[in-house]
């Protein structure tokens, strides 16, 4: 294929992309096609000679309208999924075009430089210790893995055990303490790290999902040896924050490493109006968050931040004779993340932070929170619909008719209606609809239309 062959294919893909984006605000929000329809359309014997590239691009785009959910729609409220800001999408196209392996500075100086600056900007935006290590990973799952690997290294180093050289067999036992409301990604990270989930000590939470600090104090009083405490900034159901000042002080008094799951809640630090929710988060030793949530950059984009940069680096870094690794000021990303070969995912973060600035990020957070409060006000005004949580951030839990079956029926009906898309959950034994407002493009009118569809489906379901 000649270099000239790129032009018609890229123009074709660009046309399809423009059509998808232009249709996004008004299209049916869920996916219309299921597995059987898509396999029938996409499956075929692998041809010996291949097919025309233009036809392949048309095939992909032709089935996206039915097979892809409109996750980037301003009326998609499921799973804490943000959209992509125009500048972030444009930067991500450049990332794919440049096709840089972001592993080491010698391969891609531009990626290393942008990620170095983006890391510094994030620490300033979140007001976290400026010397912290920062790694750009796939998402909060791998951010937890990275941070907890650093925590494992750090607490065992203090116990004079080299986990990277000697492994966990025979190592001092590490106690891991977390809320009963901790996100499942924390459990998965513990599995990946060989710490296991049965060793996890659960701490009671209150009616909003906040860890009870007094119960944590009781638990820590029973533990001896290396300890990692895991707290939460932004409960995935309610948006509530653990009492971080008290938890931070308890962890420090016990000599424990404090890790915070701030998948979306850490971004509250960027907002003057919501920053107080995260007071005390600066006491932690590590933080995990997602940029593909509230910063609204394309998937995949997570961030791992570790106060103790040397523990972070020691847990992650690798070296080989064939590599050209820096010993100067340059940044080798392989020192901070589990992967070597990876896309330059820090570049859209850099571009978005530069385009938005501090005020733009704060406005993005504040607008989403305002739309969540608008949802709660509109829905709670309808008899038979109740809001189960204190709407402190961008999460709203809705129950219909105080009935599990009816609530699930309404959730399914809203998804089938297509005006918007919201997911279901179970909160303290009760079925609920979970609304997460995380998209930069969600307007007051989007909320009015979406709440109206929810009320309409609810009334239809009770006839």
Brief digest:
This protein is α/β, with parallel strands linked by helices and 463 residues long.
Sheet with the most strands?
7 strands, mixed
Radius of gyration: 23 Å
What are the segments in which pLDDT stays under 50 over at least 5 consecutive residues? none
- Contiguous helical run count: 14
Q: β content, as a range? A: 5-15%
State the order of secondary-structure elements, H for helix, E for strand.
HHHHHEHHEHEHEHEEEHHEEHEEH
General form: globular
Provide the spatial order of strands within the biggest beta sheet. 1-7-6-5-4-2-3
Distance between the termini: 62 Å
- pLDDT averaged residue by residue: 97
The total count of strands amounts to 11
Helix content: 40-55%
CATH superfamily of the largest domain: Type I PLP-dependent aspartate aminotransferase-like (Major domain)
> Which architecture of the largest domain per CATH?
3-Layer(aba) Sandwich
Please write the CATH class name of the largest domain.
Answer: Alpha Beta
Number of domains: 3
Q: What is the CATH T-level topology of the largest domain?
A: Aspartate Aminotransferase, domain 2
Structural class, please? alpha/beta
């Amino acid at each position: 294929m000649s270099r000239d062959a790129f032009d018609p294919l890229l123009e074709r893909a660009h046309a399809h992309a423009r059509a998808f984006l232009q249709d996004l605000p008004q299209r049916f929000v869920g996916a219309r096609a299921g597995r059987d329809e898509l396999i029938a359309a996409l499956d075929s014997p692998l041809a010996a000679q291949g097919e025309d590239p233009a036809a392949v691009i048309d095939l992909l785009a032709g089935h996206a309208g039915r097979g892809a959910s409109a996750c980037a729609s301003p009326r998609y409220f499921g799973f804490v999924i943000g959209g992509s800001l125009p500048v972030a999408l444009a930067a991500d196209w450049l990332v794919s075009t440049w096709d840089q392996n972001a592993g080491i500075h010698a391969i891609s100086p531009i990626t290393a430089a942008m990620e170095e600056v983006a890391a510094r900007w994030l620490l300033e935006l979140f007001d976290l210790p400026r010397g912290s290590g920062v790694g750009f990973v796939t998402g909060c799952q791998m951010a937890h893995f990275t941070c907890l690997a650093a925590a494992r290294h750090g607490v065992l180093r203090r116990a004079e055990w080299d986990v990277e050289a000697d492994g966990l067999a025979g190592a001092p036992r590490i106690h891991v303490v977390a809320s009963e409301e901790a996100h499942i990604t924390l459990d998965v990270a513990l599995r990946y790290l060989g710490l296991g989930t049965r060793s996890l000590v659960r701490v009671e939470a209150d009616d909003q999902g906040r860890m009870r600090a007094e119960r944590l104090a009781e638990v820590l009083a029973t533990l001896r040896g290396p300890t990692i405490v895991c707290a939460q900034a932004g409960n995935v159901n309610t948006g509530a924050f653990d009492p971080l000042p008290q938890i931070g002080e308890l962890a420090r008094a016990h000599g424990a490493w404090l890790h915070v799951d701030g998948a979306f809640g850490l971004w509250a630090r960027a907002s003057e109006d919501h920053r107080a929710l995260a007071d005390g988060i600066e006491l932690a030793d590590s933080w995990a968050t997602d940029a593909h949530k509230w910063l609204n950059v394309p998937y995949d984009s997570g961030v791992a931040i570790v106060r103790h940069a040397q523990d972070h680096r020691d847990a992650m870094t690798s070296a080989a004779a064939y590599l050209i690794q820096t010993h100067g000021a340059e940044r080798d990303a392989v020192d901070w993340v589990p992967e070597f070969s990876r896309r330059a995912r820090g570049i859209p973060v850099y571009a978005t932070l530069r385009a938005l600035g501090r005020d733009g990020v704060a406005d993005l957070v504040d607008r989403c929170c305002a739309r969540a409060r608008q949802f709660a006000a509109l829905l709670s005004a309808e008899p038979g619909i109740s809001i189960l949580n204190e709407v402190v951030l961008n999460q709203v839990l809705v129950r219909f008719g105080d009935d599990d079956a009816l609530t699930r029926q309404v959730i399914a009906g809203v998804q089938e209606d297509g005006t918007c898309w919201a997911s279901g959950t179970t909160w303290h034994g009760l079925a609920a609809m979970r609304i997460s407002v995380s998209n930069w493009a969600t307007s007051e009118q989007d909320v009015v239309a979406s709440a109206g569809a929810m009320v309409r489906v609810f009334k239809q379901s009770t006839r």
